[in-house]
Write a structure and sequence with these properties.
Number of helices of chain A: 9
GO molecular function, one term (chain B): transmembrane transporter activity
Distance between the termini of chain A: 29 Å
CATH topology of chain B: MetI-like fold
InterPro entries (chain B): AA_ABC_transptr_permease_3TM, ArtM/GltK/GlnP/TcyL/YhdX-like, MetI-like, MetI-like_sf
Helix content of chain B: over 70%
Strand order of the largest sheet of chain A: 7-8-9-3-10-11
Radius of gyration of chain A: 19 Å
CATH superfamily of chain B: MetI-like
Family (chain B): Belongs to the binding-protein-dependent transport system permease family. HisMQ subfamily.
CATH architecture of chain A: 3-Layer(aba) Sandwich
Largest sheet of chain A: 6 strands, mixed
Largest sheet of chain B: none
Distance between the termini of chain B: 62 Å
Keywords (chain B): Amino-acid transport, Cell membrane, Membrane, Transmembrane, Transmembrane helix, Transport
Number of domains of chain A: 1
Membrane topology (chain B): Multi-pass membrane protein
Structural class of chain B: mainly alpha
Shape of chain B: flat
Number of helices of chain B: 9
CATH class of chain A: Alpha Beta
Oligomer: heterodimer
CATH superfamily of chain A: P-loop containing nucleotide triphosphate hydrolases
Number of strands of chain B: 0
Low-confidence stretches of chain A: 1-12
Number of domains of chain B: 1
Structural class of chain A: alpha/beta
CATH topology of chain A: Rossmann fold
Order of helices and strands of chain A: EEEHEEEHEHHHEHEHEEHH
Radius of gyration of chain B: 21 Å
Mean pLDDT of chain B: 90
Shape of chain A: globular
Chain lengths: 264, 222
Amino acid sequence: MGNTMTVAPAQGDGSALLCVKGLRMGYGPVEVLKGMDIEMKPGERVVLIGPSGSGKSTLLRVMMGLEQIQHGQITFGGDPYITADKGKTKIDIGVRKKIGMVFQHYTLFPHLSVLGNLILAPCKVAGESRSSASERARALLERLGLSHRVDAYPAQLSGGQKQRVAIARALMLDPKLMLFDEVTSALDPELVAEVEQVILQLAAQNMPMMIVTHDMWFAKNIASRVIFAAEGRIIEDGPPEQVLGNPREERTREFLERVFHIKT
Amino acid sequence: MMSYDFSVVLRFSDALTLGLVMTLKLTVLSILIGSVIGFAVALARTSSNGVLRFICATYVEFFRGTPVLVQLFWIFFCLPLILGVELSNLVSGVIALSLYMGAVSSETFRAALRTVGPEQHDAAIALGLPSHVEVTYVVLPQALLRAAPPLLSNSVSLFKESALVSAVGLADLMFVGQNISNTTGRPVEVLTIVALIYFVIAFPITRVVTVFERRMLRKLKA
């Protein structure tokens, strides 16, 4: 892909849920994403894998409007919401709010109870009443097996519980796409399953998602599509059986062998 | 050997009470005004405006780097000359101690603001919180909770430092005590009682700070 490529406004065809076009971003002279194009259909669950420094997490942060980009455009449901424009990044917050994100390091608000964490955004941003938001929050926490922790503070929770609360907090805003950035990487191994279980439940309800993970079992079980990225570029993109089981690209094969000891 | 008669002090309990009320009034006003100044200055020092940052830094360093007694004298005697208005003793005292408290507490707030990490900002953005909601409901409560113990310590210090206003003739507890001690010729009894009154008020607060700090750190350590 040439450096001088220009981006046509990515109206896209109506079937794409998310469309990333010609995305480049970097910090000063260091380019992290060197031109990425991704089109995601509704109901797809995309797992991003790749060595550290490949730009996987950066891509999710860009999609969430947390980073400035130098070039490209991202549309959601046909609406452009992140656009590079003369060195500035324009973000349409109304569109971006349809996307939820969960981070590696919980990022719960430590001064608020579990309930307080869940209802802050619905009450203060969406203008929902406290009682209505609390009711929804309790129902959601019950589904996630956390009803006994409603009044607990983040410091009193296990890592797995914190991460499930973080997922619940994002779900309170009724997202149409969820981004998971290495959400189990900071957890003790015995706590990983309870968090992955919650995400698998969401998958069963057809929630579109994009997931960065280093957990191969999880990747195989949740992905409808796997993207292998390295050094800011997409190297291979296809169904999990192909990318994880029988990769076409030598770099994918080499990565799987080196990191996961998967012989393909 | 001299005999001590503490009942002397009792005869002046009304005067001492008035002095204590003055000390408390002065201290509480200065703590409130000073904390607001301190928080505003701490926020201003994170601003992108270099001039504003420089003015705030100069103010803080100047008031932290000069004796409180000199600041008091300057505001009591020089400020009215410069402004051309007479200020009451209490007003001058509150101005001086508020400015001192503002400088000291701004450092407390600055440290507290720094402990609210960038990941909290990421979470706020991800939840679509506009910046005024983020500041009011995410940053401010955490900064205040973290600042509370050192702020209480600052307040206890200010309560004790406030005795310096007696040097410029403001009738606080120390001033009244000194007068009584001079007129009765019984400095040991009077000044001991005065010291005890300061201690009885300051000591419980320092204990509260310790307990509060321990509890709060446990809660926020997430």
